[in-house]
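To whoever is on call:

I kicked off a structure prediction for a single chain this morning and the downstream step that reads the tokens threw a length-mismatch warning. I double-checked the sequence; it's 447 residues and nothing unusual in it as far as I can see. Pasting both halves so you can look.
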Amino acid sequence: MKTKFLRLLTKVLAFLFITLATSSAIMAQSELSVGAVSSTPGELVAVPVNASGFTGDLNAVTLKLDYDNSILTFTGISLLQPQTGLVANASGSTLTIVNSIIDDPFQINDGLLLELNFIYDGGGIANISFKPGTEIFNPNLEPLDLVLINGSVSSATPPPMLIIGQVYAPEGSSVTVPVTASGFDPDVLIGAITLKIGFPAGVLVSTAITSYQDFDLNYSATPNQITLTWKNPAGQILANGALVDLKFNYLTSDLAVVKFNPGVIISEINYETIPVQYIDGSVSEMPEAYKVSGLLKYANEIPLTYSTVELWDKTETILIESTTTDDSGMYEFTGVIPENYILKASTTKPVGGIDIDDLWDVYGYLYNGNPPFSGIFFLATDFNNDGIIDIDDFWDLYYYFDLGDTPAGYVPWRFESKSITVSGADLIIDILGLCSGDVNASYDPIP
């Protein structure tokens, strides 16, 4: 009986939502949202900027966006509503978009407003965030009340990589620096390899190499470069793991960067070059190490026990260490050297917490921006995981609540991804998690 009542109440709620949204559009808050998209490193990517809730004539637009220009190269904008007359200018990491015709009223329709065009260079997630100064005015030069939702660009399919390791050793010792392969297509046969690896003369002296995976690399060295070559017309698979170990004598305590020099080529048996991401390494004395610890918690502060926390490098390509939270939700990493890292979390606990109140909250957000979801709550409200919160999320949550259906893109658990810097002291970093759709954090996770 209770289930039937809840289903009936939910359907009434859905009907009221559509009725209010269509009859009271003039009261809706105007919203601009940047999409979350993925791309292959080196390719052009179009990032959508969507608009909703704009009514009547408008007079002037200024959009200010911050983007990571070490990962994204801005190339221009594509206008999908040309009546706005928007033009863009990029300076440093700031993108400014304004309408070129002032005092000529225009309208912004619901849907795709424009696309931001970038070349994505890879190397992790590039956030695109609205900055202060983003304003849209009506003909009376009154600024609209805007809801601004940020976006990002991330790698769709990580490229194959060759990675030179980071090694710590005492001055005067012999060291081994590994070069490892990751992500090469097992259906692609490698026909030739040329590696040119530079290092500082007077700090490192190259002494030998050890090849793996039956790649018999030819070796030659100068005081500051190793050249490794291999060729086989029949081809060979390059699997994940060690490709070659570089042997050095470490003469001084200085930092010695070991890097890929120009001229590095990996090609298929048809001589077509394979796009590869090359990650440099180093040799240095062991720095002082620190501890990174904290609590993994549900967004209502209940500890998430026996769940996984991972420490990744700053590019999110190398997993440094993984641990499991204890019976109080505590995690801990010891011996962490000074560097930038990413903390990630996951769990195998069942999901829960979705009820009629969550539907009301999503309705309130879409209708008048209350509650104002952000952070982990924004992720949990984006039920179909497309980077924006819209009517589709409401309906998808409704069908999950009523029928148990899950939409494409649904992710059961959402966790904060924490960027941290270890430098000179131990760190205590708490991480929050939330079940998708439990937007009021009512769930009590099973211990």
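Update from on-call: the warning came from a stale cache, not from the record. Cleared it. Sanity check on the structure: The chain has four domains: 2-23+352-411, 35-155, 161-274, 290-350+415-435.
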